[in-house]
Amino acid sequence: MGARVVIVDDDETLRLMLQRALENEGFTVTLLSSGTDVDERLRLSIPDVLVLNTVLPGMSGIDVCRRLRTEPATHRLPIILLVAGNDKNEHLAGLSAGADDCVLKPYSSAELVIRVKNLLRRSNPTLLEHMVKVGDLVLDREAHRVHRQKKEVRLGPTEFKLLEFLMRSPGKVYSRSELRLSLWGDDATVDERVVDVHINRLRKGIGLGKADDVIRTVRGAGYALGDF
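^ thats the sequence. predicted structure below, dont judge the formating
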C-alpha cells in the first residue's frame, strides 16, 4: 500500500486514467466526482495528497482548497490543482488559495505522477522510500518482507498493508474506521470488527512468539504502533 491520493474530478474518463497511472506506481487511489464530497471523505481519513480539478460541481476546486487551508486538520495537506492552461487568472487564484502545485491542462498522466512524487518528496519523503524502519521493525515495500530483531516475519497481504499503514505514524492512534478505510476503502460490506481480527493476526506475526505491546489498544479510540 503506497501513499494515499484522493482525486476529485467530474470527468470519469480522466479520473480512471489518473487512477491507473498512480496505482501502477504503487499509490492507493480514491476517486470523487464533486467538491461537496471532499468534506465527508476527509472526515474519515486525511490522504497524503489531494488532487482537485478547479471546475467541479457543487464547489470549485479553488474554493475547496481555500477552505481546507483554514482547517487545522488539513491546513498542511499537500494539494495539487488541475487548471485550464489558457486561464492565467485561474492559475494565480489556485496558488493564492493555498495550492502547493498547479498542473496546467492539457497534461499527461505521467506528468501528474511526477508532480505527485515531487510534492511527496517535499512533504513526506518517507512515503516514497521502499525501506521503512520503526524501532526493531523493518518493512521492505519492494520485496514485500518484514523483519523484526533481524528475523523475518511472515505476514499475510492484509496484515502487511496494516503494518505499513501503522508504521507511517508511530504512536498515532487510529480508529477502527480509519484502519478499515485504509485497507478496504469505501467498501461498506466490511465490518469494522474485521479490523480486530487482522490486528490480532498482525500481533501474533510480529510478536515472535511472545506477548508484547508493540501494537497498543487504546480503549474507546483504536490502535497504535508503539513509538519506541
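The first helix runs from residue 12 to 24.
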